[in-house]
Amino acid sequence: MMTLTARHKLLNRLAGAMLGLLLLSLVVGLLVPVYTDEVAWRFQISRFLQDGIDRATGETCGLNTLAMPAYFMLPVRLFSATATAFLSDPLAVRVAGIACAILAVIAMLGLVRQREPASERRAVIEILVLALLGTGVLPFLLVWSRPDQAIWLAMLASLWIAFAPRAARETGEPRARIAAITLLALIAFSYHMKGVFYLPVFVLAVLASGRGALHYRLRGVALLVILACTWSAYRYWSDRFACPDDPVLAAKLEQQNVMMLLRNGGWRALPGAVPTLLSNMWPTPYIRNTMPATGYMSYWLPATPVPLPLMALWRAMIWFCWYLTAAIAAALVFLAARDRFPQRWMLAAALVLAGCASAWAMLQYNKNAYESSVYLPVLILALVFLWAAPARYRAWLGSPVLTIAALSAISQVLVAGSYAAPLWAAGRGGGYVAGQPYSLSAFAYPRARILAAGAKCGIVLHPGLKRVLIDDLTYFAYAQSSTPMHRLGVLSDWNGSAGDPMAWMRRHGSPGAVLACAYLPPSLRERAIATGDVCCVSTR
Fold it and tell me: What residues form the membrane-spanning segments (predicted)?
């Protein structure tokens, strides 16, 4: 029979192996093409130095199209704009996404180790966290560089500060801890409306950060600041996502998010939305986003290149992992209740995390693939806190975790083996990616070719250049120009009431367009000058 010490050592080695495997999967994510949403968010909130405002991909919605961010958001805007100025390359986008994903994994493990002494239970929890993060194509989604990553890191850091060991809290400076949590909350609110919905996580972090009269006063001030900024951020983001001057685009936005439906239709629309709200809370769409498939949202990945019987088995493995995880969570709740909830702060953290994730999910009509990159890690972290809720560890919980780890390891090998070669072959030449019309390669950015294409129509990059119509690829070449226009707002089904693109460009003082020839309608294609797959169109 294996001794306890030998078992503990073996589990530690297995946790180390799972960490290595997950990190390798995230690094393979370097080959994943940069998705349009990653560029679009940079276009919207990373141009403060260049334009002095926040942007939108479309410009038909009214005053909220070009918006001044709240004052507390300005440090984030300046940081993002500086990164745009010096790191204007798709490879920088993907490297930033991988770095943030790795940092988040380390932070999650740090929270586990913070709560658990070196023990078999700690090793088992680490194995479960790493295994679940590695299921299906979730590692590829985790490397997407979107505002979600900043919000997730802010939450992890806040919880790490709040639940530091008691000795560290008692000897540390309370003002610094509470101020840090407040600052992290404001950073989260600055990046996305989603940060506002995770407000309870930051409130919990403030409340759990210490005891004593001084702590109560400090926490009261911090909560007032956080709540005031929450209201400001909510007003800002809800206005940004509204579209009062373009009913066509407003109707499309209502199909994406219940909040927009309620905003445009008033709270009278709430009773009719209740069944949808309740059904939206179910986690299965988020898990389904991580499954190998014959087709993905907007072709962000090519079809999984494996035989259909193997794909079916692979998908069944992933479903089994998550159903087994749900069973573990139910067992932990039962054990904590039987022990009379000895670790109530841990249980509160688990409930807050799961509740916030469910609240955001409730509002989403469309469960876009990138939503899984935050929703599922938040649930995994809730499970970490839930595991600490019972009074003691039950060794029998290790068996289902090892089963999940084995299936996750198989899945990660299949992902790397199936995708590494085709993704490298499709993206190594740089530029647009064949078969993935909403993505671009992270490698060999063709900056010189794009600028040469624009010059053929008299569109030359210089300090006075403004209002060029660009797409995701050509944006990086013209990122330092003033107030460029994104093709989504002019040449896509998200153009609302923009109308004729040539008339639109002329009306808004644009010198023309530099983008993929494939995006041009026939009326513009006749006037275009092609340089390979990049075309320019002059408005003169």
Answer: 91-112, 124-144, 150-168, 221-237, 316-337, 344-363, 369-389, 401-421
C-alpha closest to that of 472 among 35, 3, 25:
35
**By three-state DSSP, how is residue 485 classified?**
strand
- Please, what is the average pLDDT of the chain? 87
By the 8 A CB rule, do 482 and 50 touch? Answer: yes
Closest CA to 367 of 300, 281, 492: 281
Best CA proximity match to 179, nearest among 149, 198, 205, 199 = 205
* 3-class SS of residue 242: coil
The 3-state DSSP class for residue 515 equals strand
Q: Which among 187, 229, 179 is positioned nearest to 80, based on CA atoms? A: 187
**Up-side HSE of residue 482: CA atoms within 13 Å toward CB?**
11
C-alpha dihedral, 445 to 451 to 453 to 458, nearest 10° = 170
DSSP state of 364: B
Q: Which H or E element spans position 538?
A: strand 534-538
Which residue shows structure tokens 């972290």?
381
Which residues, 6 or more positions from 267, have their beta carbon under 8 angstroms from its beta carbon? none
Q: Helix %, strand %, coil % for the chain, to 5?
A: 65, 5, 25
pLDDT band at 535 (very low <50, low <70, confident <90, very high): very high
Euclidean distance between CA atoms 106 and 476, whole angstroms: 31
Strand-strand pairing, 485-486 and 469-470: parallel
Residue 294, token pair as written in the block: 């014959």
pLDDT digits (tens, 9 = 90+) for 152-211: 999 999 999 998 876 555 555 678 889 999 999 999 999 998 999 999 999 999 988 866
In tens, the pLDDT along 247-262 reads 777 766 666 665 555 5
48 and 81 in contact (C-beta within 8 Å)? yes
- Continuous H helices in 33-191: 36-45, 48-51, 74-86, 90-115, 120-133, 138-142, 147-162, 166-171, 174-191
Sheet holding 436-440, edge to edge: 34-35, 436-440, 432-433
Enumerate residues 6+ apart whose C-beta is below 8 A from 363.
Answer: 197, 257, 258, 259, 277, 280
Instruction: Give pLDDT, residue 255.
Output: 62
Return the exposure string of 115-147: e unless at least 16 CB atoms fall within 10 Å of the residue's CB, then b. bbeeebbbbbbbbbbbbbbbbbbbbbbbbbbbb
CB 466 within 8 A of CB 458: no
CA angle 280/158/331 to nearest 5° reads 55
* Residues facing 35 on adjacent strands: 439
The string of pLDDT tens digits covering residues 210-224 is 665 557 788 889 999
d(C-alpha 396, C-alpha 335), whole Å: 13
**Model pLDDT for residues 65-107, shown as the tens digit of each residue:** 778 888 999 999 999 999 888 889 999 999 999 999 999 999 9
Contact 261, 254 (CB under 8 A): yes
CA distance 290 to 287: 5
**What would the DSSP string read from start to end of 37-71?**
HHHHHHHHHS-HHHHSSB--S---S-GGGSBPPPG
pTM: 0.92
